[in-house]
Design a protein that fits this description.
Radius of gyration: 21 Å
Largest sheet: 8 strands, mixed
Order of helices and strands: HHHEEEHEHEHEEEHH
Strand content: 5-15%
Helix content: 25-40%
Distance between the termini: 60 Å
Number of strands: 8
Shape: globular
Length: 325
């Protein structure tokens, strides 16, 4: 009998390990399904410009345009012609407005669309995995679409495309943990404080957080200037409920019917995975409708998801949320 009991106990433990391993594998399989962009390690580029804390946006823009041009030149001479072409496109004929730029490696860039100093509505876009200088055009296209939509309704608005952290690769173990998100949150919190001081007095900020970017935002303590946080295409945040996030902002969540991330198992095992689904009513976020958006489609012109996110950025109630109520 004792032997049978021990045998049954051992079989149960073995089955438990199998279940945990299977769940972790499911998380990995769901997250890494999309094709990863190629990394660009060891790309030659100058060190990023440094600024005093109170440096005006225009001062930062001018220095970073010079840094962009130099990075493009160095990439071309280093036989990284693809990166050089992308950097030249980012220069936007000398009119680009970058608060920060670092052309080394996968790269970082923080671009302003609109007139920041006069804006009283500022939306900060936080991207997900595989957003690098080599895929920046795709990220920027969403920021441009959002800015055009905001401007049509509220001219004193601006969008900040915040590629201010080393995003994880989609096909990597880092995308399954919060390590990159924790490092990014440590950068994003002070940036938001500085940004509030650069915009018009009393400006209202919103955080619009896509995919792994929602994990970043969920770990970012925010001050009173941030009125709304929207999580879209999110695999989870690592938190059990919206009330557990370190923010006093209204928390929103939405997912398009065509988004593959809906198939990610919402589990958390040994530091892998991100737990509760933000669109689950049990999470407690305000729901907004994202229509038929696929994982990379939320900010495409004319989509229901763009309309909802623009309304959140402007501080109004999305029509879809009103219908839920």
């Amino acid at each position: 009998m004792a032997l049978a009991t021990r045998t049954a106990s051992g079989a149960g433990a073995w089955c438990g390990r199998i279940r945990r391993t299977s769940l972790a594998a499911l998380v990995a399989a769901a997250v890494v399904f999309p094709v990863s962009a190629a990394a660009s390690a060891d790309v030659p580029a100058p060190a990023p410009a440094s600024f005093a804390e109170d440096a005006a946006p225009q001062v930062r823009y001018a220095a970073n345009r010079a840094g962009l041009a130099e990075a493009a030149r160095m990439a071309q001479e280093g036989d990284r012609t693809g990166r050089a072409a992308r950097l030249r496109a980012m220069e936007a004929a000398g009119a680009a407005q970058f608060l920060a730029f670092d052309g080394r490696g996968r790269g970082r860039a923080v671009e302003v669309l609109g007139e920041l100093e006069t804006a009283d509505r500022v939306a900060v876009l936080v991207p997900g995995s595989d957003t690098t200088l080599d895929t920046y055009e795709r990220f920027r296209a969403g920021a441009v679409a959002l800015q055009q939509r905001l401007q049509a309704e509220h001219p004193r608005s601006a969008v900040v495309a915040w590629l201010g952290y080393d995003t994880p690769g989609t096909v990597s173990t880092t995308v399954l943990t919060a390590a990159r998100a924790d490092a990014a949150a440590a950068e994003l919190t002070p940036f938001l404080d500085r940004l509030a001081g650069m915009a018009a007095p009393g400006a209202r900020l919103s955080l619009l957080c896509h995919s792994y970017g929602s994990v970043v935002c969920a770990r970012t303590p925010t001050g009173p200037a941030v009125g709304d946080m929207a999580l879209f295409g999110s695999p989870g945040t690592g938190a059990a409920a919206a009330r557990d996030l370190p923010t006093g902002a209204r928390v929103w969540a939405g997912r398009g019917s065509g988004d593959w991330v809906a198939n990610v198992p919402h589990v958390r095992l040994g530091g892998l995975g991100f737990g509760t689904d933000p669109v689950d009513p049990a999470f407690g976020a305000r729901a907004f409708t994202a229509g038929a958006a696929g994982h990379s489609d939320y900010l495409k012109p004319g989509t229901e998801s763009l309309e909802s996110l623009a309304a959140i950025a402007l501080g109004t109630t999305p029509a879809s949320e009103a219908s839920h109520a």
